[in-house]
């Protein structure tokens, strides 16, 4: 339940100042909501594109993936040195940014290994990079979606509760003060009339 509003000039000034603040703050919230919505669409689109690339690469490897049974040492030549992640900022939200994967440069004798060996290593590295990219994009999506939810709630709070309630309070105070002023004028006239009739 809303707190009872004092029907005074000071309260009227406070309510008017509050309304100005709300009206100044609301467009910033709406802009943030728009930015987050656009960014969320971009992230989802990028994640979908990356998933399509991952599926295409996976489908392309199915024709020769059975060859890995002939030479299971492929995994020995794939070592991750580091996974680089940075931090970005979207409308005040810190998000992780995938920068890449660094693999150790492990040499092998091209004459000893089968022809497909090099292609298999490249494909496995690319699969890992695409999967890592998707993981980071999903983290971004989660963070942006949560911030969008909170921002939307704030926009609704300002639009549907705080601004209308403050306007209602201002109207009530103005009516009360207007009635008080009218009553004071009437009392003054009555007093004047009584003084004249007494004289």
What's the layout of helices and strands?
Blueprint: H1 9-61, E1 80-90, E2 93-103, H2 117-198
Antiparallel strand pairs: 1-2
Helix pairs in contact: 1-2
Features:
mainly alpha, 11% strand, Helix Hairpins, 2 strands, 199 residues, rod-shaped
How would you summarize what this structure contains?
With 199 residues, the protein is mostly helical.
Description of the structure:
The chain has a two-stranded antiparallel sheet with strand order 1-2. The two termini are 54 Å apart. A hairpin with a 2-residue loop joins β1 (80-90) and β2. The protein has helices at residues 9-61, 117-198; strands spanning 80-90, 93-103. The chain has a single domain (9-187), classed as Orthogonal Bundle (Helix Hairpins). By secondary structure, it is mainly alpha-helical. It has two helices and two strands; from the N terminus they run αββα.
- Estimated helix fraction: 55-70%
CATH topology assignment: Helix Hairpins
Please tell me how large the radius of gyration is: 34 Å
Order of helices and strands: HEEH
Task: Give average pLDDT, whole number.
Answer: 87
State the end-to-end distance: 54 Å
Q: Into which percentage range does the β-strand content fall?
A: 5-15%
| Unreliable spans | none
Can you name the CATH architecture?
Answer: Orthogonal Bundle
CATH class category name: Mainly Alpha
Q: What is the approximate shape?
A: rod-shaped
Number of domains: 1
Major sheet: 2 strands, antiparallel
Oligomer: single chain
Strand order across the largest sheet: 1-2
